[in-house]
Amino acid sequence: MNRFEGKVVLVTGAARGIGWGTASRFAAEGASVALLDLDGDAAEDAAASLVAAQGGRAIGIGADVTDSASVQAAVDRTAEVLGGLDVLVNNAGITRDNLVHRMSEDEWDQVVDVHLKGAFLMSKAAQVHFVRQRSGRIVNLSSVSALGTRGQVNYSAAKMGIQGMTRTLAIELGPYGVCVNAVAPGFIATEMTDATAARLGLSVEEFRQSNAEVTPLRRVGQPDDVAGVIAFLSSEDAAYVTGQTLYVDGGVILGG
Description:
Elements: E1 8-12, H1 17-28, E2 32-37, H2 40-54, E3 58-62, H3 68-82, E4 87-90, H4 105-133, E5 136-141, H5 153-173, E6 178-185, H6 191-199, H7 204-213, H8 223-234, E7 245-248, H9 252-255
Parallel strand pairs: 1-2, 1-4, 2-3, 4-5, 5-6, 6-7
C-alpha cells in the first residue's frame, strides 16, 4: 500500500520504540518522514537507517519538544526540506516513576512537560500548516496508564490530559478539515518498558512474560501493533474519525 504517497509525516520521539516503528510504517507506505528526537544524533542515525532500508525520503531532527523555539524550528525545517506537513504524531515521552509520597516536583514537572506541553507546542506549530491547507492529521500517544497505575501519578495524569487535549483539538480544528485522535497503548516491548523491568529487579523476559499472562491475547504488544493503528487514524480510511482515543492493549481493559 502507498496510502501516504506524497504526504509528509513528523513523528516525535522517533529514534526508537513506538516512534521508530511508526516512522518505519509511514515510510513503508510512501510518506516522507521527519524523525524528531531529543537526541539529534540518534534521530539522524534513525533517518539514515530508514532510507537505507526502505528508500524514500527521511530526515532526522534534534529538538526539545518542551521548548517553543526548538519546536518551531523543527516544524519549519520539516516543511522546508520535505515540502510541507500533513501528519503529526506526538509520541515523545519519558517516565519518572515513584510513589506519590516519594515523588519530587522535578519528577512531576519533567513528565508533565514532555507529554502535555510537548504535545501542545508541537500541535500549535503544526496546525498553522493544517489550517492553511484545510487538511491534516494529529495522532497523540496516550496510554492505558491514563486509567491509573501505581507509582505513576505523573505519567497517568499526563496521559489522561492527552485525551482531553485530543478532544479539544478535534473540536477546534475540525472546521478546517483536521482530524485529531489518540492511541492508548498497553504493554509494548520497548526500551522504556525494559528499563521498568530493571527498576523492578526483573529480567526483561520475566517482565514481559508476567504482562503477557494478564493480557487476554497472551502476548505483549510490539511497536508495529501501535504503528498500524496510528497509520489507520492518519489515513483517508479514518476521515470521519476525530476526537477519539483508541486503546491498543491486547484486551486488558475490557478483559480485566
